[in-house]
Write a structure and sequence with these properties.
Blueprint: E1 7-13, E2 16-23, E3 25-30, E4 33-38, E5 44-48, E6 51-55, E7 58-62, E8 64-70, E9 73-79
Parallel strand pairs: 1-9
Antiparallel strand pairs: 1-2, 3-4, 3-6, 5-8, 6-7, 8-9
Length: 80
Amino acid sequence: MDIKHAFDVSIVTPQGIVFEGKAQHVIFPGESGAFEVLVNHKPLLSRLLSGKVLVDELSIPIERGVVKVAMNQVVAIVEQ
């Protein structure tokens, strides 16, 4: 993984941490459709719908949640 093109990602459920680490891209199931987050993404706050969060090649099923993107840090609080 090219560290220059990676950012910090945390995906948390009420039961605990599902993923915490670096990623090059993350795809979320947003209210208006799927969207991708890459390094240096503009700040964003979005609700998430039922679907899968894709962190590089890892697939994480979710029911709903919220995600905050700011300063190369992504934090998603989700229900599974």
